[in-house]
Design goal:
CATH class of the largest domain: Alpha Beta
Distance between the termini: 15 Å
CATH architecture of the largest domain: 3-Layer(aba) Sandwich
CATH topology of the largest domain: Rossmann fold
Helix content: 25-40%
Number of domains: 2
Radius of gyration: 21 Å
Order of helices and strands: EHEEEHEHHEHEEHEHEHEEH
Largest sheet: 7 strands, parallel
Number of helices: 9
Number of strands: 12
């Protein structure tokens, strides 16, 4: 593979300013340009993009600026001469910090007070509503960079952590690791269930009615993974019937979430617009990954984060 240009596709502007990405990439030893859907690509281009395009198969290498790559046809990339890499590994601080924010809001009832602020309502929550995070259990489903980051933070707060991962291998700070076949047992005693898995055939619909029913009725679901990891109707039913205490959702079945979607109406839900990874240095983190891989290409080494 030979890289003679980094082409930053305009879709990157979905998550960070294009100019900032180009500037951060300018230290690379090849020219950097912005491109649109109609601009030609060549077999010596690296394309940096938010989402897939058919034209990208003309490039040597495509880098997605997200950790998730389920929008990309990995089979087609594997069958072509175009490499595909993703941005996993750069979300180990941002997403876990957001998760801690959700957990703290639920425990200390901050989301309720924020809602009442608009009405200038000086009203306290019932005595038994607020609780402390210390001593509570968190089940982290997915123990990659993000999941491990969640574990590190919640255990530092005095919480207990169990986890779910496909291999079942132990992980630092995790009291017990379950396999996906035992996910109902994993969530049974967890005050919080945090989803941090990629969307695959094996994780699609993983959190269904049976798993939600296995959670304690004072438990909260936190989804910073992908919407389709959770069965939509099952979550809505659990919230409606009160079989779980609430949910924090950052990833949805359709994005943007339609205005008429019933999830908006639940006071015990915290909804954020798929922004758990947002940070004002996101462009620098992406650029660092791309620059390192350009250097690897020039040294004849394999691409890091290659997924196809």
């Amino acid at each position: 593979m030979e890289i003679e240009r980094i082409a930053v596709h305009e879709s990157v502007g979905t998550v960070c300013p294009l100019d900032a990405v180009v500037e951060s990439l300018s230290a690379a030893p090849v020219p950097v340009e912005t491109v649109g859907d109609d601009d030609p690509l060549s077999e010596t281009d690296c394309v940096v993009t938010f989402g897939p395009r058919e034209a990208f198969y003309d490039a040597a290498w495509v880098h997605g600026v997200r950790a998730g790559y389920d929008d990309f046809d990995t089979d087609a990339y594997a069958a072509s001469d175009t490499a595909l890499t993703n941005s996993t590994g750069i979300h180990g601080d941002t997403v876990p910090e957001t998760v801690v924010g959700y957990l703290t809001a639920f425990a200390r009832r901050l989301h309720v007070y924020r809602d009442r602020q608009a009405d200038r309502a000086w009203t306290h929550e019932p005595y038994d509503a607020p609780f402390t995070l210390t001593g509570e259990r968190v089940c982290v489903v997915g123990l990659g960079t993000i999941g491990q980051g969640v574990v590190d933070r919640v255990t530092a707060l005095g919480m207990d952590a169990v986890g779910v991962r496909r291999s079942g291998d132990p992980a630092p700070g995790v009291e017990r690791v379950y396999t996906p076949d035992d996910v109902e047992a994993a969530v049974a005693d967890a005050r919080f269930v945090v989803l941090a898995v990629p969307l695959t055939d094996g994780t699609e619909g993983l959190i269904d009615a049976a798993v939600l029913a296995a959670m304690p009725d004072d438990g909260y679901l936190v989804n910073v993974a992908r919407g389709d990891v959770v069965v939509e109707d099952a979550l809505l039913s659990a919230l409606e019937e009160g079989t779980i205490a609430g949910a924090a959702v950052d990833a949805y079945w359709e994005e943007p979430l339609p205005e008429e979607h019933p999830l908006w109406a639940y006071e015990n839900a915290i909804l954020t617009p798929h922004c758990a990874a947002a940070t004002n240095r996101y462009h620098e983190d992406v650029a660092e990954l791309v620059r390192e891989n350009v250097a690897r290409v020039r040294r004849g080494e394999p691409l890091a984060n290659r997924v196809a």
